[in-house]
Structures are given as C-alpha cells and as structure tokens.
Amino acid sequence: MRLELIKRPQRSMLFSALSPFIAFMLTIIAGAILFALLGVNPLKAFQIYFIEPVSQVWQLHELAIKAAPLILIGVGLSVCYRANIWNIGAEGQFILGGIVGSIIPVLFPQFEGPLVLPLMLLFGMVGGAAYATVPALLKTRFNTNEILTSLMLVYVAQLFLDWLVRGPWRDPKGFNFPQTIQFNDSAILPELMPASGRANWGFVFALVAAVLVWILMSRMLKGFEVRVLGSSPRAGRFAGFGINRMVFFAFMLSGALAGLAGISEVSGAIGQLQPVISPGYGFTAIIVAFLGRLNPLGIVAAGLVLALTYLGGEAVQSALGISDKVARVFQGMLLFFVLGCDTLIHYRIRLIGFATPKLEAAPKLEEVH
Amino acid sequence: MDITVNILLTIATAATPLLIAAIGELVVERSGVLNLGVEGMMIMGAVGGFGAGYLTGSPWIGLLAAIALGAVFSLLFAVMTLSLATNQVATGLSLTLLGLGLSGMMGTSFVGQPGARLPNLDIPGLTAIPVVGRLLFGQDPIFYISIALTAAVMWFLFKTRTGLTLRSIGDSHTSAHALGIHVIRYRYLAVIFGGACAGLAGGHLSLVYTPQWVENMTAGRGWIALALVVFASWRPWRVLAGAYIFGAVWIGQLHAQAFGIPVPSQLLSSLPYLATIVVLVLISRNKRLTMMNTPASLGQPFVPDR
C-alpha cells in the first residue's frame, strides 16, 4: 500500500480551517494509546490532563501565565516563518531578554519608581532583538545558515545565564544559591486581578502583540512584503523588496518579542534570575506558531492549548506519577499531526493498494476525439 | 607519551558520535532531503541503547537497539516529508522535539543506573604494542565502525552506480524522476540509513562515551553533526576531518576545565557551539562555492506527477 498525493487546483479553505482540529483529535487518539501503554486508564488520564488543570479560576490564571510567553514568541516566529526565515533560537533570545531586562533591578536595586518597569521591558526587548541580530548579520553578510547559528546561540545563552547567576550577579546574601537578589516591588510586573489569581500583565502584552502583528501582516505593506518574499523571493526582488532588510526585520521583531516574553517571565512569574528561566518556551513556541497556522490570532488560541499541555503534564506527574516529559511528547505529536494535516490543504490523498495497477490506462485516441 | 596517547584516544571517543551522525546525514542530504531531526534520532538511540543494554545486560543488544530505534524514528520523518510532502525544516524540528520528550519519558527509570559498556578491542600481542597498539587495536568497536562507515560511504557515493543515482536525485529530483528513477524510494532508504547512523551515534554516547543515561545527554551534538555536513561541503573525508577537529575542541575544553584555567567553566563549555558558528561562517562566506557544493534540490519537497 502506498500514498499518492494529487494536487488540488487551489488550496482548500475547508481543510485550512479544519486541519488544526483534526491534528488535535489525532493527538488525543495517539495520547490515549500512549497512556494505555503506560498502564493508565486513558479517560482518567485525559480528565486529569486536560480538564482538571482548568476547572478553577486560579488555574485559569496559571494558564494565562504559561500562555503569555508562548503567544509572544509564537507571534514573532510566525513573521519569520512566513518570510521563509528560520529563527529557531527564540529560546536564547528569551533568555537574553530576561538578562538584559534584569540589569536595572539586579545592578541598581536602589532605583525605584514608576519608570523602572517600562525601562526593564524596553531593555528586555533590546536584548532579545540584539541577540537575534547575530544570526541575521551572519546570514546576510556571510551567507551562514540561520537555523544552525540561531540554535547554537541558545546553548551559549543558557551557559551565559548560568555563569551570571553563579558568578557576578549572585545574591551575596543568598546562602550561595545560584540566583540573583529578589527584585524590589517596582521591578515586579503587577498582577491583573490579584483577588482571583497570579496572572500578570504579560498576558496583556501577548494579546496586544498578537493584534498588532495581525494588523501588520494583513493591513500593511510590510506584511505584504513578508508574504511575497516568503512565497516567492524572485517576485519580491522584482518588486524591489530587499531580502536582506527582511532578514533583519524578521529576526529583530521576533527577537524583541521573545526578549519581552523573557523579561515578563522573569519580572512577573519568577521575580529574580535563576540558572533556568524557561521550560523550553522558545521551542514550544515553534509548535504554537504552526498550530496557529502562522496567523497571529490563531496563535493566541494555539498558545492557550500548548499552555494547557504544560499544566496537564504537571498534573499527571503529581496525580499519576508519570514523568512530566509527557507534555513534551504531546507537544511533539501535535506538531507532527499539524504538519501532516496541512498536506490536505494542498493535496488530496489517495491510498493505492498493491493490487491496483500502477498507471491508469491512458484514454484511447478515438475516445478523445 | 602515554598522556598523548590518552588524549588522542579521548578525542577519538568524542569525535566518533559526531562522525557517525554526520556521515548518515551526509547521505540523506546528498539525496536532497534535509533532516533536522538528527538530535532527536540520536537521543532516541541513546535511550534505546542504554535501556536495552541495561535490561538485558548485553551492550551488544544495546547497540542493535540503538540502531533500530534511530531507524524506526527516522521512518516517521520519511513518511511525513516524502509521502505527505510536508515542510522538511518544520518536520525535522518536530522530530527533534518529539525525540527529546519521548526519550526523557522512556528514560525516567534509567536515571542514575549503572549501564553496560561496550568493551574495548583487545587483541593479544597487537594491543600491547607501545603507542600505536592502543590507538590502532585498543579502541571501542564503534570507533572501527565509524571509520569503516566513512570509507564505505565514500566508495558508495563516488564509485558505484547507485551512489551516482543518489547524488543525481539530490541535484535534480525532477530530472531523475523523468529518467524513471524511483526518487521517493531512494530517499526513503537514505533517510532510514541516516536514522540508523544517528541512532548508532546516540548508542555510542550511552554505551561507550558515558555508559549511563542522562536526560538531553546529546547536548546539541546532533546539531553540530548537521553543521559538520555543511562544513564538509558534503564530502565524507572532510566530515571525518571536521569531526576530529570538533572532538579535539570538545576534549580541549574539558581538559581546560579540569586543569582549573582561570576562565569561567561556562565559557569553556560554550566553545564547541561558538566554534560551530565560526566554522559555519568561514565555510559559507564564499557564496558561489557553497552554491556549487550544496545538493541543488536540498530541502525541497517532491511530489511525483503522473
């Protein structure tokens, strides 16, 4: 048996809308098999994985906390991927955003007031954008593959953060724990509704970023430029769009958003710098971007779904004793199925058995005439 | 003298997984497919090799399991990109993400357990020869496999008809298809070969290099292997040279850390990654040369028309 792809005359709007849902259903089925293999009743596991983590108001706040960085990064990455530019180093840009944004509260803790937070956020964005400029520069100047360079810089960023919190930035009164001082109150991102849960302004930033990038991509010339250069660089060149400028634009935009996510996470959910500040948000955001069909508004929904996989992973770990790595497995499967289902947008799939002849009989000449 | 031999031996041990994974990926890319899932296939090989070795007590079964798991895992990528014509970059990434998650889950109960180690070669009389004895006749079995594999791939790609066909597919799948060559079948086989190699490379990590299971123990080696292929301009013997250069960098920074050189250990640890970037810049700088060497249909999906 083999598959055969038959090109559709135009892209199917139906499958374009349906494919994330089909992918999600397939993930659930594969997940049920996985849970059964682990010796857990799948229904019970799904109850714990997908329902219980969002059954109370404070838990929705936790969902928003996890979704915020995923959406912020995912929205930025969607611009890159639309332009056919492969930034997969958002994790590193996130970390650099966290580090540069923390310069004020760590080195100048006596500096307080309403100016602190805006400056921190700005620094975070500059840090992320600057770090993303490196692969952009190497790509445009030296023709270097941006996938590999941006990924290598993730490892470098992780090690740099590790060095900072164990070395020069370590809290001198912190009993040798590898962490910086606790940020003072004016450096902490405020909570949205402290009465009901911990969700902070990071989620609002994510929503605003999604709307702004949506406007950019669908209503402005720059967005058109991104799409043209992504689907046909040759056409873009004839239109006078600069591919090099686009590389810088896409990398710096996504870097700035990842940096903003980084500093929001550090000053919101954590409150200080630690050796590890991200459970792989930068990589999970790649899945978010694709699940959201590279559309900023779709990415908001996808970010919430992927945030739920994180919470569910923690929930099954504490309730069923399954490794929380199950979350990563779910995320990986989801991306697989999304990519597979996207094939349906452009192709019809036909199964061909062994028995059927390889080629259909060509129409005889007489029949044609 | 003894120290030199020891250092050379450790360099060879560090270079071997890079070499095997890169040689496998080289064949894949020569067929025109870009599989960014090397890291994921490698970590699956590592966990599978360790697990099978630990459960059966035989590192040789571990070795076979590592190869098999890498190959099976790559089949997932092959079905997606070759049969369903999905985006190769995104699919490769998802293979890596899935592999890292799946291996972490499978390996939960292996953490902290002592593993089985593949024994080094020991030929009476030969291994005991001073200096060259241990270098030539006293290393782990996978080292010899890696060298043989490099030679075999060189011979296959450039001296056999099938190898020529494979390269022609990588340069123009449409022309190859028009000549009646079964593009998809060749590519399936190439991808599975690459997966088996990546699995073997992962098995080397958990059965020879550090016979234990640590989460994310590949530590970016799969990505470095990908960079090595670019660095080598898709030529096997250059992959060999590149892998040993990187093995030396890897060992060099470990030794520097052990000697307590007054440089932050994190800076030393980041050297292999920084070196990868520098090397990529140096090799890609000449745009025309890169264009000439890169398989022309690399990374482009192919759907046979009828």
UniProtKB/TrEMBL annotation, chain B:
<dbReference type="GO" id="GO:0005886">
    <property type="term" value="C:plasma membrane"/>
</dbReference>
<feature type="transmembrane region" description="Helical">
    <location>
        <begin position="216"/>
        <end position="234"/>
    </location>
</feature>
<feature type="transmembrane region" description="Helical">
    <location>
        <begin position="89"/>
        <end position="111"/>
    </location>
</feature>
<feature type="transmembrane region" description="Helical">
    <location>
        <begin position="6"/>
        <end position="28"/>
    </location>
</feature>
<feature type="transmembrane region" description="Helical">
    <location>
        <begin position="60"/>
        <end position="82"/>
    </location>
</feature>
<feature type="transmembrane region" description="Helical">
    <location>
        <begin position="33"/>
        <end position="54"/>
    </location>
</feature>
<feature type="transmembrane region" description="Helical">
    <location>
        <begin position="241"/>
        <end position="261"/>
    </location>
</feature>
<feature type="transmembrane region" description="Helical">
    <location>
        <begin position="141"/>
        <end position="158"/>
    </location>
</feature>
<dbReference type="GO" id="GO:0022857">
    <property type="term" value="F:transmembrane transporter activity"/>
</dbReference>
<keyword id="KW-1133">Transmembrane helix</keyword>
<dbReference type="Pfam" id="PF02653">
    <property type="entry name" value="BPD_transp_2"/>
</dbReference>
<dbReference type="InterPro" id="IPR001851">
    <property type="entry name" value="ABC_transp_permease"/>
</dbReference>
<keyword id="KW-1003">Cell membrane</keyword>
<keyword id="KW-0472">Membrane</keyword>
<feature type="transmembrane region" description="Helical">
    <location>
        <begin position="267"/>
        <end position="283"/>
    </location>
</feature>
<keyword id="KW-0812">Transmembrane</keyword>
<feature type="transmembrane region" description="Helical">
    <location>
        <begin position="188"/>
        <end position="210"/>
    </location>
</feature>
<protein>
    <submittedName>
        <fullName>Nucleoside ABC transporter membrane protein</fullName>
    </submittedName>
</protein>
